[in-house]
Every structure is written in C-alpha cells, then in structure tokens.
Design goal:
The chain is mainly alpha-helical and 501 residues long. It is built from 22 helices and five strands. Strand 3 and strand 4 form a beta hairpin.
C-alpha cells in the first residue's frame, strides 16, 4: 500500500501483511532513506542490541590483543622444539605488528563494498586458521609467516570496532563504549601472557598449546558473530533495502544514496592508502599523537619481550611467575578505565568552552605517568628491593598508557570529522610500526646498557614527550585553524549547521 506526500515528494511503502514486519521506506527523488525512528537504522537499534554489538565486536579485539602478546611467553619451548634462536622468535613477535599496521590501509575500504558483518565473519575465521597454522608449524619460518597473516586478519579487531561503535552510538554516547573498547584492547595485552605463562610452565603443553587455546577461543567467537552480530553500516543496509525494492517492483529507479555516489573499489583503496599517510605527514595534531602513542606502544612491546627475562634474572622467577607480572597491565588498564569516568564528566562540563580540547584534561595528567612509572620500574628492579616495587612502576606506566591509547581515538575523531578514520589509520600505522621495531633492538640494548639504564632511557624519552598534550590543550584550536584539512572540516560543519537552521 503506497501513499504519496506531494509536499515532500516522498513515498511511504508499508507491507500489507500482518505476518511480516512493516517496511517503511522514504523515497526522496528515487533515493531510499530511513524513516524517522526506523528500527532498521543502526542508530535506532535497541539499547540491548547496541551493547550486544559492542560486546561482540570488542571480544574480537580482546582475543587478538591476547594472541599478539602471549606469543612471547612460549619462546623457551619454541626454541627447543624448532631449534631456532631467540632473535628469530622475536621476529615472529614483530611481524604481527607489521601485518596489523599495514593491511588495514587496504582492507578498510572493503566495508564500503561488503559491509562490516561480512568482514567480521571472514576475518575471524581466517584468524582462527592462522592460529592453527602457527600451532602446526614445522619450522620457525612458518611461524613467522603465520604471525604476519595473524596480524593482518586480526587487524579487523581494531579497525572495525571503532566504526561499529560509531555506527550505533550517537557522538555524546560513545565515551563509555570507546573506553570499554580500549580496556579490552589493553587489558587483553596483559591477560594473554598471564594465561600463556601457566601453559608454558606445564612441560606437557608448551608453546603449541598457547596457539591451540587461541584457536578454541576464536572458533567460539566465530560462532557468536554469526549468531549475534548485525550489519551496522547504514549505507550497506540502505543499499540492500533498495535492491530488495527493485526486485519486488521491477522498478530500477529505486536507489540508495551510496549506490548513486558509489566509487570504484580501486579508488577507495587508493584513498585509504594515501590519505592516512598524507595526514601523518602534514597534520601536526596527527603527528604529535602518532609520536606519543607510537613510543608508548613500542615500549609496551619491548616490555613483552623483556619482562620475563628481567624478573627471571633479578628475582629468580619461573615462566609462570613472570606471566603473572603481566597482570600489572590489566590492573593499569582498569585504573585508566576508572579515571575515564571522571574525564567524561570533565568533557561534558567544559566542551562548550574548550571544544575538542576538553578531551585532554586526563591525558595531560597521564603524560607524567609514563616516565614516572618507567623510572620506578628501572630503579627498583634489584634483588634487595621487593618485586612488588617494579610491579607498581609497571602498573603506573600502563594506567597512563591506557589513557593515551583511548584519547587518541576520541580526540582525532573529534578533530577530523569525516576524515577521522584516515587520521586514526595514520596513527595506527605509526603505532604498530613502532611495536614491530622496538622488540628487535631491546634485547641488544639491555645487554649493553643493562635493564636499569635501558629503561631509564625509555623514561627520559617519555619525559620529553610530556608537553604534547599540554601544547594541544592550550594551542590545539590555533593549530587546527592553520590546517587546510581542519579548515575544510570546519567549513563543512558550519554549512551543515546553516542548512539545519
């Protein structure tokens, strides 16, 4: 049954059957759009559905984060089993970050063509196969290749989750879902080594069973995606609605806006590969945050490489005991997550005056946590001082690291609007390249400088980076005013505001 509203030139089509859900489609100049309060619009999903999607998406992030970090706990049995060197095993740790950082530049465009749900399904299944590949590897070369592929397919966990959250939550509602996403990502990096340490300590299990556990968890996750996840990209939903309407009516005039303005996949890939690098090279805000998070994440992966060796050498810990030391990353993450609740209050209170920089109150404080935590860890890890002291230093460092990880996504999204995904992809590339490089030189650095002075060097670099959030807090608006990209975004926002008025 169709009714025509001449004043708006809209057609509202409703299903005549009471046995099927009502189909309410607004067609404006042959364009299919969502009706007001349309339940098929991801923004209008129920509160329960939104949190289900958020939790399922974040679960992949946690699984991938755990897999990225747990690998280092199996070095000892791996070197014996595969007759490889520790440096070769470390290359496997680093290759993960290379795949994780570079592949999303290409695959991020696939959501425009295939939607988010299909990418989640394919990536989670392929990720499970890479973990199986590592578990069955006959030599270290296969392990390294499996880690590269694992990082490539696992990168979906970070690149799509932020988009999925943005699909279903309005801007003022995203603070807590994004904080939970950051919590799962950072805490998962600590949880993986804790579990892997227990497995590695059992002589009947070893490094291969670390990978088999990941296969089991990923297999269960794959089933949950198929059963619980929904498509959240609005353009894909509208395109499918239009396709269905064309089949039902035989009228090819019905089109979604995304179909009318559709670009070639090759063009989208070109943009997704070049725009993040352009922003990384030309935008001071992206550069500053990329440097900050890149160093922080590089140190985190350096710690994954060195914590076990240091605590074994200084305190005589076994591999299971050193695995539990990684729980400091989990505790630090929860401290940062709790602090974010206060940051959200500050953001809402000061946004009218500070605008985007209202995101930076807590990061300005957290900037001091990085060097302070690292100095405590460096100078207290001695046999005559209880092991809890360096563990406290690691916790302080990680609580600051969590805040930085989270604010990067929120602040860049606020500053770059429609270009946010490219800005975030630029910092992600920098962050993961640093994570791949740091473990390759930390063993040699600590051998020459000792742990005390090597970690002190990290602390000094962290202290040198403290001014970054402070400069942006006071001068961020001026920096954006001089940016071509930011001016273009501001003009678009002003035009949109004028149109709404």
């Amino acid at each position: 049954m169709a009714t025509v509203q001449d004043s708006e030139k809209h057609v509202i089509i409703s299903s005549p059957s009471s046995m099927t859900p009502s189909i309410n489609i607004i067609i404006n100049e042959q364009q299919i759009t969502f009706e007001d309060n349309d339940t098929r619009d991801p923004m209008n999903f129920s509160y329960k559905a939104k949190w289900t999607i958020t939790l399922v998406a974040c679960a992949f992030t946690g699984i991938v984060a755990a897999a990225s970090a747990s690998f280092s706990m199996g070095y000892q049995s791996m070197m014996q089993d595969l007759n490889c060197t520790q440096f070769q095993a470390t290359v496997g740790l680093s290759m993960w970050s290379i795949g994780f950082g570079t592949v999303p530049l290409i695959t991020s465009s696939f959501t425009e063509e295939f939607g988010r749900l299909n990418i989640y399904i394919v990536s989670s299944f392929a990720f499970m196969l890479t973990q199986m590949m590592i578990a069955l590897s006959p030599n270290i070369q296969t392990v390294i290749l499996g880690r590269l592929l694992g990082g490539a397919f696992g990168s979906t966990g970070a690149t799509l989750v932020g988009g999925s959250i943005a699909d279903v939550w309005k801007q003022h509602e995203r603070g807590q879902p994004m904080a939970f996403f950051a919590l799962v990502a950072v805490a998962g990096t600590g949880l993986g080594p804790v579990i892997a340490g227990v497995i590695e300590a059992n002589p009947r299990l070893g490094w291969r069973w670390i990978q088999w556990v990941h296969v089991m968890f990923t297999g269960a996750y794959f089933i949950s995606v198929v059963l619980l996840m929904k498509e959240t990209r609005a353009t894909i939903v509208l395109t499918r609605m239009a396709s269905k309407k064309r089949k039902e009516t035989g009228d090819n005039r019905y089109r979604a806006k995304a179909e009318i303005e559709k670009q070639k996949l090759s063009t989208l890939i070109k943009i997704s590969c070049t725009r993040p690098i352009y922003l990384l090279l030309t935008e001071p805000i992206v550069q500053g945050f990329s440097l900050w998070i890149g160093f922080t994440w590089g140190v985190v992966f350096a710690l994954l490489e060195s914590i076990s060796a240091e605590f074994q050498a200084v305190y005589g810990f076994n591999v299971q005991d050193t695995g539990f030391i990684f729980s400091t990353l989990i505790v630090g993450s929860f401290i940062g997550y709790s602090a974010n609740i206060y940051q959200e209050k500050l953001y809402r209170k000061h946004y009218p005056r500070k605008r985007q920089e209202a995101r930076l109150y807590l990061p300005c404080v957290a900037a001091f946590f990085l060097p302070i935590g690292m100095f405590i860890y460096a100078w207290t890890a001695r046999p005559e001082i209880h092991w809890i002291a360096p563990a406290i230093g690691l916790t302080i460092f990680m609580s600051g690291g969590f805040v930085i990880y989270m604010v990067v996504f929120l602040y860049l999204a606020d500053c770059y609007g429609t270009y946010a995904s490219s800005a975030i992809a630029g910092q992600s590339l920098c962050r993961n390249l640093a994570a791949s490089i740091f473990p390759l030189f930390t063993t040699q650095m600590f051998a020459r400088l000792t742990y005390k002075w090597g970690l002190t060097l990290f602390g000094c670099i962290g202290a040198a980076l403290v001014p970054i959030p402070w400069v942006l807090f006071f001068y961020g608006s001026r920096i954006r005013a001089r940016s071509k990209v930011s001016r273009k975004i501001l003009e678009e926002e002003e035009f949109q505001d004028n149109m709404e008025k």
